[in-house]
Structures
1.
Amino acid sequence: MSMNRSEREEQSLEHFIEALRQDTDAPAPPLLDADLAAFSRLLVSAERVKSPDFAAQDRVWQKALLEVMPPPPFFLDTVGGRSGTVELSDADDYLPSRRWTGSSMTLAAAVFCVLLFGGIVLYAANRQGDTSSAGAAVTAEVTELRLNSTAIASALPLAVSASQPISAPQVSQPDGYRAVRVEDWGQLTTVGYLMPNEVANLDTVIGIMSSADGGVWALRDAAGQVVLWDRIQALQHGYASVGYTLAGAALSPDGRTTAFGAVDGGLLLVDAASGVQRKLGVAEQRILVAETSDVPYNLVAFSPDGRRVASGSIGAARALYVWDLASGSLVLNMDGFVEDSQTRLRMLTFNNDGRLLAMGSSDGTVQLWDVNVGVLIAALTGHSAEIAGLAFNPDSDLLASAALDNTVRVWSGQNGAALQTLLLPARPSGLSFSPDGAALIVSTVTGDMHFYAVTDGHEMSVIQNAMPISSLAFVQDVSGWMLVLGGGDGTLAIWLVEIF
Amino acid sequence: MIVGQKRVLELMTLPADQPAEAPSPASADDAQIEYAMMLAARADVRQFAPLYERYFTRIYKYCLRRVETPQEAEDLTSQVFVRAMRALDSYRGGMVAAWLFRIAHNVVVNHLRRRRPYVSLDDTGLELVSETAEPIKFVIRAEQEALVRELVATLSDYQQDLLALKLSGEMTSEEIGVVVGKSAGAVRVDLHRTISQLRTMFQQMTGERDK
């Protein structure tokens, strides 16, 4: 018979107490009595610490591995984007040791990609994506030459010491998509963007939300912080949560209001411009309790028209509410809607017209609700691990879920019927449909973006993002569609996505 | 990056009733597997990944209990594994858990020497509440747990370390003995004394409060 977490902890505790009880070396007088056993229970409970999350585990491993692996013998000192000069410096004395100038052509990009596990690859390409003969001469001195334009684009952020702005080579994707990594945060300042982690010290970015016009972004990190970023007025508001109390956060479509979930499923609404706070439900009464508890699972979601907010949690509170913001009233109250207090709510999302609400749980189930009438349309089972991504397609006739069992399942958005299962090569960290609904994009913790065709589920392409991805979102603004990727180190990467 | 894939595979192959966080090797087979992992890691440091998978949570929790914040614990955990991977040649067989925790113990002790511990309950990763507790019981229990933590903070560094190794590191007395340089029997006695001492202090404090 399988045990749940509390049973396992209890068994572990009993082993601990039993070990003490059998301790024949224990000095007199206190052989373990019932009272001491009871106190031991209290001690174990008091000393319990939170388990780290997967992101922390990956982060520590990468950091440790980078330290123990030998440093590269050379680093790229200068990339002369338009002058075509590449200079190699010795890593020990920083003196230029090799220089190459391509006078007859213009380099679009030339970067070192330092492979973690040995070897250095020099990527050199001209505007057409071809390597030059001179580039080949340089690479002959190093390890390997790769003619891979995707890799060139993904390696671009490593060229941090570029003497001039680098124009990224365009990466053509099959089936009508072209994705170009525009900049990473280190370079965004040069084109008018701000670097949020300069002021916020973001932890792993686990949520990226934007207003409907793309002008305001909200970033949520694993430490419970929420940072609002007004890209037009260059204003930032940071909301540091108390522990995990305010772990659930959502940005209204007009970008003005941020909603936070309280432990009981209530709501705290904050107007970014005025700082005015408004509380709905019993959030006010419970907020003090919430501040001392560890409930990182209470999630919130705005309906696309901004008139409603859903808030829910599974666990101690087991509540799912839908609020009408104009009246402050509860449109739907599904208190105690699940029996199981062990599972946790992981994802919560509305469809485009706000009628359907999908939620994904830590046990791998997905529930599809009609919030207009308060009816559970379907409980979708099939995943064997927790849900890490959940999205409706633009027409709302499909619902896709990504889970830590390394699968993506596509369901009917109308009745929840299972339509498709996709196998992933790594753990997913986010999922989104493309704006035209033709592609399903899944990011993985290994840093890849997989583009799947919605029609038949075949993989159209994979784009490597150079850094692990912890969250993913499509954002639209005046410049078009952007695929925004959150990283484990609190940074973002942005890819412009052109659909043709 | 590779870690994530391996973790999922590992979890999928575990029996349903086995904790995901691997305990100390319970069998000679398990110890042999770990020994083989260590040998493989010596040849190629990347092969340390499975051992990292096995011990990350326990090492992290141990560090977290001894320092102030999750961020600090993460840094220390990283240092522990860096040192471990650099010291693979110094491993001479025996319990891998004890070998690793000895490194962790040294890292934590060095860290605390540089900076005396100051435990702020607001900032630590301590779990402060039982989710299933009823409100009144929860308050009483939370007060009791807070008192216990205050009392633990008054113990000697050695005693606090023992508790952290036992409770957060989930170590056996034999393994703790290797880490702190004592026999398993001596560790059991010290643990027993520590808990009895805590219990007595706790009873005194709660008795005084009741009066």
2.
Amino acid sequence: MITTEEIKHLATLARIELSEGEVEKMTSDIDSILDYVGQVQKVSGEEKRETPVLRNVMREDKVTYTKGQYTEKILANVPSREGDYVKVKKIL
Amino acid sequence: MIDLANLTIVKARKALDAKQFSAVDLAQAYLNQIEKKNPELNAYLEVFDDALEQAKAADDRIAKGKTAPLLGIPLAIKDVILIDGKKITAGSKILENYVATYDATAISKLKSEGAVFLGRTNTDEFAMGGSTENSAFGVTKNPHDTGRVAGGSSGGSAAALSANLCLGALGSDTGGSVREPASFCGVVGLKPTYGAISRYGLIAMGSSLDCIGVFGKTVEDAEIIFNAIYDKDPLDSTTISDTTFEKRKNKEKLTLGVPRELLHGEGIDPVVKKNFEESLEKYKNLGFEIKDVSLPSIELALAVYYIVMPAEASSNLARFDGVKYGLHVDGPNLLGDYVKTRGQGFGPEVQRRILIGTYVLSAGYYDAYYSRAQKLRTLIKRDFEQAFELCDVLLTPTTPGPAFGVGAKTADPVEMYLQDVFTVTVNLAGLPGISVPAGLTETGLPLGLQLIGKAFDEATMLRAALAIETAADFKHSPAKWWSL
């Protein structure tokens, strides 16, 4: 049984603000989902996890665009900018 | 007047090349229909204002004697696939007003063929759902019965095609999001082998599961779109090439495998079982051999999926932070910006999956959930490999029931997840799957049949799909809707 405290902790880790009402709803929803997916614990756990045959997918390490090609397009989507920088609140 | 109800890509190609109508005529016919019908269906979130310009460009190419399978063909694109310079939201408030900065590879391939993009179609938020009821921009209604959902998450694309508001469409499929709405709306929905179509420019949910998929009114139409966009892509390192899997021989007589244990599960509508058995009969009459096969680990597939997918989604969606794109909600400090933006920008289902993903990946629960699920995924994959030693194509229903009523399953997330029971297994194993309309309920709701092929053996799967499509003789246009 997952608790409202655990949900609040997960929300903090996931950077999601939830109201008290949302926490309550989320607790009962997630509890029933975890109950369902918890079926996986019924199996022995002896199975090995197989790693498929892996191979490297490499490409040449070279610049594939011209300088500034995307700058304006990308910055046009930024909520807050200053010149060609993304503007955020100070963290120090 | 172009007969849109009976038009296919194949027929339109002939008519365009023979100059019976122009690409502009065709695009205009669809735009007129969209204007009339979309307000009731909510299939399109946006109709592109340059659709006729694109069609004009296609006409110019046709006038010069050029042709390509999709030149001048009007398509709808799910709102999770980037088209340079167009808005894209993934059905979420957190990306409202976001403008794509480049073309997805699938889009650039369609552009080079000269396809016409009519608009972007509705989806559950970040493709998370099976009904489009999780879209921040309202539910898409089913053209066969507007009291019912179109399915999801690619519900907008399926409904648009079914209602003759486009001639083909792109969607995305992580656990059934192309096949389920195709089944609900009575169109063909193809999810290719994992890695067949480049995902460069597809907004990510579960990266080990996500595929771009295609919708066509017929198997042949779906195949035409698939052929235009599948390819190895240096921009997506997970794409496969013709040499990744061994070449399959083209057999004269095909054997279909029926995983019986899947059909004995709870909650499968008797009408679905009946349609399935009738389809098996049709296959027998067509000379296919039918064999029962066993997939012993399959009963845990849905549980495995709802661990693996949220784990991957919680990581993929970390990038939406109110700094780089879309919505920004101001808080007291940078952390406050993050939590408020993600608290208000994401809807409840997306938040649920992020929290579950965070839970199953956390140190204390990793072994009990995520690690266990990954081991079981290996077993599921092996089940399929063993089944395919006995048969060429697997056959199941696409969904446990026909399209359900709007709001019927929103109260209980687990009940909604159970809709995916037949489709998620295919994504876990990375195989190709297709939903073909194979029958109707007594009230005229479409029922889909799912065919599952060997890895990168779409050809054999499509051959079996074509056979049942012909035998079922399904009428694609919703009769009630079209006569309105």
3.
Amino acid sequence: MGRDEYVTERVRFYTRARRFPQMIGKIGDLRLFGGPYTTAQFLVGILGIWVLVQSAPLWARSSNLFLNLLVGVLLLVGLVRLVGLLPSMSFSPGLRARGLLRVYLAPREGTYRGQRLRVRRPHRLRTRISVPLEELAVPGSTPATTAATSPGPPAPSEHRSHAAPVSNVSALLAQTIKAEGAGR
Amino acid sequence: MRSPIVAATGNLAFTDNGTVWATWRLAPQAYGMRPLKYRHAARNAHTALFRAINGEGLLLGLLARTDPAAVVERMIEGVDLARHPGWAAEAEARLDELETMPLGQRTFWLSVPLVNESKEMLMAPVRSWWSTLADLAALPRSGPGQALVAQRLAQAEALRAELPSVFAPRPATVAEQLWIHLQLMQRGTAGDQEVPALSDGSVDAETLTIYTGAGLPSPILDEGGQSDLARKSTFNPFKRKFVKITDPVTDLASYQQSSIITGTPVGGLSFPGGEWLGRIDESGLEVDWALRFRVRAGREVRARNAKALRNLNDQYDQQDDPGLSQSSLCVVAGALAEYEQEFASDENEVEVAATTILTVAGATGESTMEQGRALREFMTDVWDFRLATEPGLQEELWHACVPGNPTRRVALKSQQITTSRAFSAAVPVMTSSLGDPAGVLVALGLGGIRVSPVLLDFDGAASRLHSAIAVGVCGELGSGKSVLLKSLALSILARGGQCVAIDRSPPGEWEQAFAVVEGQQTISISPDATTSLDPLRTLPPAAAATVTQSFVTALLRIPVASVQGMLLSEVLDPSYRQTHTLRSMADVVGHLSAHSDPQAAELGRRIKAFANLDLARAIFDPSLPGADLTAPALVVRTHELTLPSKDELTIRHLYEELPLEKILGRAIYTLAIATARRICFRDRSRLAFLFLDEAHSATISPEAERETSDWLRDGRKNKAGLALGSHDPSHDFGTDVLRRLIPVRVVMRHRDEDLAAASLKWLGLDPSTSPDVLDLVTTGLSPMPEGDQASADPTRAGEGVMRDLRNRIGLIKTLPPALPGAREAVFSTPPATSESQAP
């Protein structure tokens, strides 16, 4: 194959062919004053009119109706212009706002398995293990008459360091250890 | 947010939303500096890859550590270390050295969600609801049934069969799926691991199933690394654009910043040259990339384009104003028409709508953000891409890189649209790695952001690739050419091979290099010779006759079929020599001189004229002990020989007037190469190499050139290799055929443009179409000291461009031996007082 067949080629992206700024310039046959507007501007404009009307007592302080109307229109135009400054195609403003909102709401400790990572204060684990009676027949120890219940919090005692079993459960454990030892 | 994967088996990942993802590992396309036809082939393979997938996919390019121990294992593979302790010591020393280097490679993974067909359309969601309910009720987990797994594996296999075979798509193992998750969590930290080796069959990968919570680690995700901040300090997400991912098992925290491509170059990119994803390592940063893409068939694309056209017409109406907005609509119209044209001209064309996520990671937030800034600058300055690094969306972008996760809104919104042909110009799945799976470690590949070992397997070259065993190295003086050849020789010797070197350097650099080898033998062709190269004393009788015949005919410049030639042949015949007890050249000369036949006496007298020369002692002095040709390392020092020039051999009157010394020089070269051939071709089980550092000395004589040509043709069958060094491959490596027969070619620094261009041509590159490679060879490789610099940067020594046995071309840095003694031995310029220089 000759070298000439490998000419340098120009390749392009066609994102703009399918995604381009959607502007609203008219409604039906009615041309919008000052338009066209971006969708965000249009929505903010509609919302702005509603908010301005609802909050009129707060800003329409003048007795002159014309002056009040002028203030209202200026506020609206300012707001719409401000929204128009948002870059429309680089990164979705909605996504950006969502991201920022999420980051402020996120727990400071981070999330673990999709949930807030809660670190509890130190606390004691109370156990409720039930063990069948016959399992407790440890040679050389007093046969238990009831099912072993929680031994409760181990009281700080000198016996803790002793090898001899002091409770039914520890007797059972000792038996198990012996059995394992014999098995080896 | 929870990981959606509930079970993984084979290369499948079952998710809690009913989708099953299949993952394959792709073998990258060799790219590097290969000629245009290979680059176009690699790009076409990518086009085919995108066209083979209909729907969604995730392509990952993840950097993976290479375990130095694994490299050393490749070095020692097939070598009996008990018999070759030298290679064991070298391997051990090399391991220590490799541990200090950033060894690694880019790994490529393709994950595709499998379509839920027929009853699975209903059953998959039901199963996922049930699994969610079971989890809520804390019921024991049950994995997918065997029938379902088998059905999905078959579905995945059918898809794999559609993928281009050049990528050798291999189903990922469960261990590899786990590795991907771990790597995404731990990148940039010390926890970075190599890709798990394939199972040796001890665990049945087909039946192994892991479940989320048991197998997959659960990282702690912290957007902006807020847990690092003091309790009451203010948090500014714009100054902390990263996500901190902590592995609860190791407690290692990886700070990752992901940027997303939001703007593409307006003028487009050129191909070749515009491989914006394949060449991401040129940023000098460790970047992992993820491509979330959706492939749409031409029919669907044209429907979407028609909708876009209607929309555009509406916009013309909405923006009925002759100003700027109208002209921007004209640009859109132009792009849409061009896009439509692409589909009209190729009916197989598909659309690739891809979100490119580039991630950098580090052990601190600051270092990560610094890398992120550099990456954005690189992508903008070099390729004209615009990247957005959004605060608050870092965790979401991280999730978008994980196979099994559905495509998120942030990824959908940032998709860049183009054709498969245009997208494939990014050549994402490429590699510039070189070399063989095992063998001698000769260099480090510098093509990627992490260095990769370059091994040469000469045994494999002979048996598997059916290629000649030969290496050619060219470069200017001091470029590191001899160091590479000597390092290669010492490695071959340490592995139990045999090496013969013809050393023309006055200080005897090869003698010094081989001094570390036990049983080394030096034959010095000089008046002070101590060992004899007399073929009648060193070679077996039959071989001795042939070699001596060609030596004497070259010496006396007589035709073999002449009367004297025939006479010589009779005298050299083994039985004749035995009868007349002719054991050495001196005996033959004496016998001929004293012969009653005047032709024989004349022949004897003519040989005697040469035998009386001081330089001929190593051939004709019977008092010298004969060389031991079984020695593992043999050096023939020829620095005192004078050789005829090309003109003296081709211009008749100059040829007629050649001085005796030059005739002797030429004949001795022929003798040395012929002797080396007998040594190296002797044992088919043992690799043996001849090293001709100054190859022009050998190839200048037609007899020696014929010997080297025969060597290249037949060497493979006898495990005999040839290594040539030179400044100018177009003249010094013999005939065109000889040059082309050398499979492994290395070009080192050449400041002279013409020589550099000739070297590149020999390498297989066209300097006119690869001006950047020409610049690299003239100024970029092991740069010379500049300005006030006293000496060149030692860390840049030994750089070169290599073409390997598989015709791949890439940038390398040669590795001298790791053992200190051997390393010292290979560096030339022996000290003047060296004992090795003593006669």
